[in-house]
Write a sequence for this structure.
């Protein structure tokens, strides 16, 4: 029997973020007969129980994440390098910018191969990032760190084109790969169980959104849509799942605008598919996103999806009015018009939903995604 390839995934935390959920999806679909999987992290979080349930090794390399430009980074790099040597790691798979910084340098010290998986704006145009309220200065070291990567996985053609235009690395190192999810709907509680827990959700037209409640997620859109639609659809409810620093501010604003009957900030909720199951429409008006796991889950559950155009992979992945709706995130009126249309046209809603499910099957099956990643591990470790 061939010796297992030893892979060390590095991520900042085990919190409920897109990169973190993507990582646990990858691990749960991995072939553990061929790969010995390790996960290094800085901060614990709600996903830790799922990671612990997997037959893998967990390694907390620091007690709390810190900035890359910190003297503590030297100790972090040496700690990771020591773990790599002790466990004879073959491939380091990084899932955040800071772990790329630490992991790439630890790989250089130990000879382990580095697979850089991009879930942020490090390879986006700084002008675009600033226009969306993000600070590109945090990624100033991206080009230098990229030199230590043996392969780079990006989520969007825009990232790929930017790297080519700026000559950031040899393009034969770069591959584009969308996120994946398990497409099965097993293990989801019945809708009635959710209604017993949250009776205010019963007999409502639910427009669902999942996001970290923070800047860049375009959360003000919810208030504008609710105000535009509540008179014509008194039963409409915008159901928002997620937590974050803006939670209390948003709840206060909802009360001040007399929209509490039409907006519910439900907080952290897992699995999100249970809320998707009772929803009529899913919206994702984010100003900054690469490839949302929640959007893939919505497609897999045959829900009509409205997303921001010119954001992340949306324009290259979706076809407007065929498998989703691509809308201007700065024009709430566009979104309210489509929501009305879907409420009034059940045939359109079902057709869009069916084609969305087909798109998810074709492009986001976690089994196919993991197979490509595992082939990269094998390619990197060929002697």
């Amino acid at each position: 029997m061939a010796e297992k390839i030893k892979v060390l995934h590095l991520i900042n935390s085990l919190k409920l973020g897109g990169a973190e959920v993507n990582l646990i999806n990858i691990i749960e679909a991995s072939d553990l007969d061929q790969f010995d999987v390790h996960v290094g992290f800085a901060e614990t979080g709600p996903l830790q129980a799922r990671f612990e349930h997997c037959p893998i090794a967990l390694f907390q390399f620091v007690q709390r994440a810190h900035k890359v430009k910190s003297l503590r980074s030297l100790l972090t790099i040496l700690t990771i390098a020591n773990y790599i040597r002790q466990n004879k790691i073959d491939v380091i798979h990084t899932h955040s910018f800071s772990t790329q910084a630490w992991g790439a340098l630890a790989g250089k010290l130990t000879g382990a191969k580095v697979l850089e998986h991009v879930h942020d704006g490090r390879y986006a145009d700084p002008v675009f990032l600033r226009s969306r309220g993000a600070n590109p200065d945090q990624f100033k070291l991206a080009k230098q760190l990229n030199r230590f990567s043996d392969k780079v996985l990006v989520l969007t053609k825009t990232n790929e084109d930017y790297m080519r235009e700026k000559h950031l690395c040899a393009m034969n190192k770069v591959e584009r790969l969308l996120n994946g999810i398990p497409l099965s709907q097993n293990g989801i509680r019945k809708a009635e169980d959710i209604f017993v827990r949250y009776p205010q959700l019963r007999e409502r037209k639910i427009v669902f959104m999942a996001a970290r409640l923070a800047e860049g997620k375009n959360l003000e859109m919810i208030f504008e849509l609710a105000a535009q639609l509540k008179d014509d659809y008194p039963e409409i409810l915008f159901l928002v799942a997620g937590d974050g620093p803006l939670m209390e501010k948003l709840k206060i604003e909802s009360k001040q605008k007399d929209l509490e009957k039409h907006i519910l900030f439900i907080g952290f909720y897992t699995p999100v598919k249970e809320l998707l199951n009772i929803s009529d429409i899913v919206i994702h008006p984010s100003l900054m996103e690469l490839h949302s796991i929640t959007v893939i889950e919505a497609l897999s559950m045959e829900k009509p999806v409205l997303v921001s155009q010119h954001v992340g992979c949306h324009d290259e992945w979706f076809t407007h009015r065929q498998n989703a709706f691509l809308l201007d995130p700065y024009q709430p009126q566009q979104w309210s018009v489509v929501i009305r249309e879907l409420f009034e046209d059940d045939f359109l809603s079902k057709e869009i939903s069916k084609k969305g499910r087909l798109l998810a099957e074709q492009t986001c099956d976690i089994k196919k995604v993991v197979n490509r990643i595992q082939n990269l591990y094998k390619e990197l470790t060929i002697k």
